[in-house]
Design a protein that fits this description.
By secondary structure, the protein is an alpha/beta fold. The protein contains twelve helices and 15 strands. It folds into two domains: 4-124 and 298-328, Quinone Oxidoreductase, Chain A, domain 1; 134-269, Rossmann fold (3-Layer(aba) Sandwich), CATH 3.40.50. Helices cover 30% and strands 24% of the residues.
């Protein structure tokens, strides 16, 4: 392949539509333990936007190429690479910088993906589905038929929770802030979908028959999260993994004293840092199987070419989107 590639870079933090640009770079020759991956697809995630703005906790050395997840095909391998063959579809390492046509990366950091999975879907398996899977397994021991509740249910992670919970036999209460999403999520498998308001507690109780809810997933914060916390059973856990409202979560003392609720957080970056290769593989395996069967799908609103990076990031920053914005590279 050509040793020249195009890559998106930013040299200073700021408005992504203003500071991001696409440049031509040299593609390095792989070392003995490296592989060359030709990119197929890379999503534009909120964390990518935050990183360009300078608001993300992880600060890369500038100039930097954005892109925390993506998928591609191995087109060349170093002499000592034995775990991957040319032609294999792979997921790129976490926080690698995927908004580029091709890259050179250590082969043992790549995750092979079944070829049956569409590249665009493969590119989005590493953050939201992993987040959903780990939150459903790491905090409360849930059994088939148990209920959980979440806000931001229409987000990428929220929809992954619905899909994975359905496969695990769990039942979901899904809180949204736009009325048109209620029927949409029910169609997609939500057991209960409700519009967020001051009556949520009573509506949840009626919809679930008063069943105990021991797990809540919070990506909003503020009053929305407090209303959800009030639906929980004693000794339940709320896991916070986002803060879309930009408002803090304020907990009345009574919820701690009399209901013994537990409040904790989850950040997928930290999970990747701490997980062994075996733990990562064990988490990806069921997600791959679901994706192959069409049971785990991320909605895509629009695909862009890398050369359209400015328009793509502007689109990704819009509110009320109905799916992901994705870079799609030539096959």
């Amino acid at each position: 392949m050509s040793r020249k590639i195009k890559a998106a870079i930013y040299e200073t933090h700021g408005n992504p539509a203003e500071v991001l640009r696409v440049v031509e770079q040299d593609l390095l020759t792989p070392a003995a333990d490296e592989a060359v991956v030709k990119m197929r697809a890379a999503p534009l995630n909120p964390a990518d936007i935050n990183a360009i703005e300078g608001k993300y906790p992880v600060k890369p050395t500038l100039p930097a190429t954005p892109g925390m997840e993506g998928a591609g095909v191995v087109v060349e391998t170093g002499a000592k690479v034995t775990n991957l063959a040319v032609g294999a579809q792979v997921i790129l390492p976490h926080n690698f910088g995927t908004w580029r046509e091709a890259c050179v990366v250590r082969a043992d950091r790549l995750i092979a993906v079944p070829p049956e999975i569409d590249p665009v879907q493969a590119a989005m398996l590493k953050i939201n589905p992993i987040t959903a899977w780990r939150m459903l397994h790491d905090f409360v021991p849930l059994q088939r038929g148990d209920w959980l509740i979440q806000n931001a249910a229409n987000s990428g992670a929220g929809r992954a929770v619905i899909q994975i919970a359905k496969e695990l036999g769990l039942r979901t209460v899904n809180i949204v802030r736009r009325s048109e999403l209620v029927d949409e999520l029910r169609t997609e498998g939500a057991d209960v979908a409700l519009l967020d308001d001051d009556n949520v507690r009573d509506q949840v109780k009626e919809s679930t028959g008063g069943a105990p809810i021991r797990l809540a997933l919070n990506a909003v914060g503020g009053e929305n999260a407090l209303r959800i916390a009030k639906t929980l059973a004693s000794d339940a856990t709320m896991v916070t993994y986002g803060a879309m409202s930009l408002q803090p979560l304020t907990i009345p003392n009574g919820l701690l004293i009399f209901k013994n609720l537990r409040f904790t957080g989850f950040w997928v970056n930290k999970w990747y840092d701490n997980a062994t290769p075996e733990q990562r593989a064990a988490t990806f395996m069921p997600l791959f199987q679901m994706a192959k069967r069409g049971l785990l799908q991320t909605k895509v609103e629009k695909e862009y070419r890398l050369e359209e990076a400015t328009a793509a990031v502007a689109h990704a920053m819009k509110n009320r989107r109905n799916g992901k914005v994705v870079f799609r590279f030539d096959s």
